[in-house]
Amino acid sequence: MMEREISRTRCIGDDGSPLVVIDYQHVDHRQTDNGERTYPGARRSALANGEAVRPLGDGIWEVIATGEVLRRA
User: Fold this and answer.
1) Collapsing DSSP states into helix, strand and coil, what is residue 17?
2) Residue 2: per-residue pLDDT
3) Of 10, 14, 57, 65, which is least surrounded by CB within 10 A?
4) What residue segments make up the domains of the chain, in order of their start?
């Protein structure tokens, strides 16, 4: 199983600092009789530095460790 980046979103933190939220998705590539197939799996979001975030709604995320709220820039 691999993980691929599916999007990057520029955000602004509570203190006005610029941040980037990256969305990742686990994928599994398998060879079948009909060729290679890709099976998408679970998704996760993190800051560019690897710190975990959770989506709260349209264009809003929360940094799990600190509770800081991020908004799409």
Assistant:
1) coil
2) 94
3) 57
4) 2-72
